[in-house]
Amino acid sequence: MAVTAAQVKELRGATxxxxxxxxxxxxxxxxxxxxxxxxxxxxxxxxxxKKADRVAAEGSIGLKIADDFSKATLVEVNSxxxxxAQNDGFKDLVSMSVSQAFVExxxxxxxxxxxxxxxxxxxxxxxxxxxxxxxxxxxxxxxTLKADENSVINGYVHSNTRIGVIVAxxxxxxxxxxxxxxxxxxxxxxxxxxxxxxxxxxxxxAKFVDEETKGRIEAIKxxxxxxxxxxxxxxxxxxxxSMSQLTEDVLAKxxxxxxxxLKEQGKPEKIWDKIVPGQLARYIDDNTTLDKEQALLDQNxxxxxxxNVADAVAAAGKAAGGTAEVxxxxxxxxxxxxEKKVDDFAAEVAAQMA
Length: 354
Known about the structure:
- By secondary structure, this protein is of the alpha+beta class.
- The chain folds into 3 domains: 48 residues, Helicase, Ruva Protein, domain 3, CATH 1.10.8.10; 139 residues, Elongation factor Ts, dimerisation domain (Tetrahydropterin Synthase, Chain A, 2-Layer Sandwich), CATH 3.30.479.20; 126 residues, no CATH class.
- It has 15 helices and 8 strands.
């Protein structure tokens, strides 16, 4: 039967399958939409297109954790479409890949591909599975964390399988580490949601911080212009944005300014010691916005925003009778940094359906 461009567009929009496969599915199924969806699901997507020229920016994160929480591995496997990423064959491929990377301690994708799997190179098994699925699929990144006897590692993959995090916590003893397994997973869940880019503010490049400071201050000034126009409360304009900028001299000067203000307000000097610490803490809070956004240890902990992550982990260690600190984390998100091609779908349909 004749298939219209509108039918193809609807099927592709629902499945993300290649256009010509959508057309073929509809033809094979006499235009029945539901049968065409099932036809695509059973067969994967087109094997005829040149896969090398296509962009694989969808996919899933795989996670493997040792039974004793001494090691964890993340693998990002990319596909062209989210439709294929939901395919059971693709899910099996991700599971196989992360398990192999975990066992072989593969540090990069080429090492994984050339490792031995059931008597032959892993690449042979992987490529066979890809051929059955029928879309460009590739292993993009691998990350592994290992623990010593006084450390624990745990991880988390978000329900959409697009974000995965592993976290290492070092403790004073193996006993404390055993008690921190759940905390490590909670921190991984936190990092999944809050998107830290580094462990601590100490890791920031000075030039980066300087450039960010200028940009953020200007942004707040512009925002305040609009707030003023709307007669709404203005935001505080910070002097700095990171603890890396708050030297002893800077904090001493801030304390002097606080005391000078209290004096101007006529506050009795005998109560300053009760006021100054709180206002100094507020100054630090206002001037460390970059840290709270991008540095894991300095972010407000999502399960108790009265503490940052570093303090929350330390408190968990203390509750277990010891000490604990996060020493490393890895966060992978599917497709980050990949430039996706934007197609003119209408023009593509018109050209192919002509």
